[in-house]
Amino acid sequence: MTELHTTPDPDEALRSRLGINRRRFLSTCTAVAGAAIAAPVFGAAPALAQPAPGSSGGGPGTRLVPADKRGIILYTVRDATGRDPLSSNLPSGFREVFKELARYGYKQVEFAGYGQHANAPGGANLESVAGAKLLRSWLDEYGLRAQGNHGFIPASWPLTQADTDQFKKHLEIANILGMDHMGTGGDPTGSSYKADWDVAADKWNALGRIADRAGLKLYTHNHDAAYGFLLDGGPLDDQGRPTRSSGIRKLEYFLRVSDPKTVWLEMDIFWAHVAQYKFHTYTAHDGSTREKVFDPAALVVAHNARYPLFHAKDGTRNDTNGMGYDMVPFGEGVIDYRTFFKRVGARNYHNPMVEQDNAPSSTDPAQSLTHARIGYDNLAALRK
């Protein structure tokens, strides 16, 4: 492979390697790996190839999730990627798992790190440029596209040079893999206080600018706690912190103070419904209890372009576990995905990733892949 030219300025080098010449760089990497890029799938940038967010497209009976938008986060089948291929006839390691997921019909995957069993092709750790090229060759071999990763987001703020370099390494890996997005599996902060969310927004805005220069959308994946109410007024506690709320939710505030041009989100629809169950009243600044029921679809509609990714995870009702739901394979629960996807529209923009946290089983080694197949079938069956 021809060596990539660098300059003394690392940011300029990053732009040169991962910005304007991104497609050429990816094509070169893929050619070296011995796999061709399928132009109809990978040729156009999604921002240009898709209708504007908010337009649903299609008529009655249209599938709510187009075939090329049906994805899965590999965390669902983490036991399979981590399985020893020398001790099992089941798909094991990234390459064989990709092959199996493609057989079900999936067209997209989201990574949850780049580790697999040491005996799988490529070895245990593929978190490198060489590992990314190998992964990309397998993705192309089976007609899959990587759409994101729950990976490295620096804990430090202000950013240290070491963390900045590590972050840029992950951007390079993401570009080799052909991703349009790179993110994390955690909330911007676990705090309930406005000041901490302001700091989180400053950090994510800075990281988002670095990612944007690399041609990637940086996203945060959110759990139920992020939809709790922001503590932003009322009497102060003994540490001088507010104890009551104006009724704005923490993530709503983050959407307000983060940059819509460089910071993106991935809604986990299951956890958003858990938040709907848990966080429906708050104590106002005047001490009164007020009701405000969370509507996940309405939040997406209000910020549609900022939600390129979803986690499509299902649940059955359980009023005894504190969450309101138990996780089940996608399509076997009670969360009304048909209505959700109809309301948010933009079906050619959003990328739903099937997820089930508890799919792996200690007694049934094939369960996670079985549930992945069930999830695909039910995602594909959703119609207007």
UniProtKB/TrEMBL annotation:
Signal sequence, renumbered to the chain:
none
Looking at the UniProt entry, the stretches that span the membrane are: 25-45
Q: Name one GO molecular function term.
A: isomerase activity
Q: In what residue span(s) does the Xylose isomerase-like TIM barrel domain sit?
A: 98-354
UniProt keywords, alphabetically: Isomerase, Membrane, Transmembrane, Transmembrane helix
Q: Could you tell me which PANTHER family the record lists for this protein?
A: HYDROXYPYRUVATE ISOMERASE, INOSOSE DEHYDRATASE
Name of the molecule in the record? Sugar phosphate isomerase/epimerase
